[in-house]
TrEMBL record:
NCBIfam families: PRK05679.1 (NF004231). It comes from Cellulomonas shaoxiangyii. The gene is pdxH. Belongs to the pyridoxamine 5'-phosphate oxidase family. Its cofactor is FMN. This is Pyridoxamine 5'-phosphate oxidase. Residues 49-150 form the Pyridoxamine 5'-phosphate oxidase N-terminal domain. Pfam families: PNP_phzG_C (PF10590), PNPOx_N (PF01243). InterPro entries: Pyridox_Oxase, Pyridox_Oxase_N, Pyridoxamine_oxidase_dimer_C, Split_barrel_FMN-bd. Residues 186-227 form the Pyridoxine 5'-phosphate oxidase dimerisation C-terminal domain.
Amino acid sequence: MASRVPPRHSGAVRELLRSLPALSGDVLPFEPGTAPDDPLTLFADWFAAAVDARVPEPHAVTLATADADGRPSARVLVLKDVGPDGFAFATDARSGKARDLAANPRAALTFWWQPVVRQVRVAGAARYLGPEVSAADYLARSPASRAAALGVRPGEPLGSVAGLRASMAAARRRTDAEPGFVLPEWQAWVVVPEVVEFWQGSADRAHVRLVYRRSGDGSWARSLVWP
């Protein structure tokens, strides 16, 4: 009979949660009245400020998707570019997020930069960028990154970690031997923003939320909303 480890009492977890500090970072100054007309310009400014403040991995972002039945899913990935079209990332066509986006091409992104108490939220349509852009993205990655993508089968049952490592080692040998090889399943995507929210936290809970909304002609309207 398998031994059972008693779970930590839910009350203890609750007390632990309530004992933790929140909004403990160093708040940066933000004057929404002087914000630029384009949210991508403000994002670039905030991102540079996060890098300057040594925020760990500021390019990590939570991507939220939903399948054809509306079941949501979220995961953290690495942002690859921000440009006029939007926020770019890449994935394997066999992954859950790629399947979600193929069935329901809308997505949301959330950046959380705790050391500066800032959050950026993006929502909009997701668009596959095609095989040429996808191949260029794949080849621009490091050999280790390309081998990691080649050596896995996203979401399939895995017998052991040893099997994973063996597959990745074989993938690295192939990547080194064939530097021009492109994983056929590799896909580059972009989230075209329709709404972008900039959230500046405050220790007194008077959080500032500046929301940009894209209109039909492509221009942006911005306004403050209550926290």
